[in-house]
Specification:
135 residues; 4-stranded antiparallel beta sheet; elongated; FolB_dom; GTP-CH-I_C/QueF; Dihydroneopterin aldolase/epimerase domain-containing protein; dihydroneopterin aldolase activity
């Protein structure tokens, strides 16, 4: 199928705001090489992405919509890094990766890293970032 993105106008809601939809990625977990830890904890990511809706009558084509699989692949590459400094780094990088996709307008990232010792507190970070000009 051909991609008619150039021909598609952005659909707006009453009041002029572009039509969007939400993608949820919940419970993505992967082992991460954390700096200062001998284990590889299973780090959990929860994402909420606000993305531009392709408009009415969009083709049944994955290129017309934002695929959560693209985000999951980005997270897998992020989690494969060595010596990750902490949850702040992971939230910041995950937000950057999400916003590198042109259709993503806003992202909220929550990262949880389990305690190194059983019964200890988990640590984490949460970050919300909006594409410049989309505030």
């Amino acid at each position: 199928m051909s991609d008619h993105n150039a021909e598609r106008a952005v659909t707006v809601q009453p009041g002029g705001a572009p039509l969007t939809y939400t993608i949820l990625v919940r419970g993505f977990a992967a082992a991460v090489d954390m700096a200062g830890r001998s284990d590889r904890p299973q780090v959990r990511f929860d994402l909420t992405l606000t993305v531009t809706h392709p408009g009415p009558g969009f083709p049944d084509d994955i290129a017309a919509v934002m695929s959560y699989e693209d985000i999951v692949e980005d997270l897998r590459r992020l989690c494969a890094e060595s010596g990750v400094p902490g949850p702040d780094y992971l939230t910041d990088r995950a937000a950057d990766l999400c916003l590198s996709h042109a259709k993503v307008r806003r992202v909220q990232v929550d990262v949880t890293i389990p305690a190194p010792a059983p019964g200890g507190p988990a640590v984490g970070a949460s970050l919300t970032r909006v594409r410049p000009g989309q505030e």
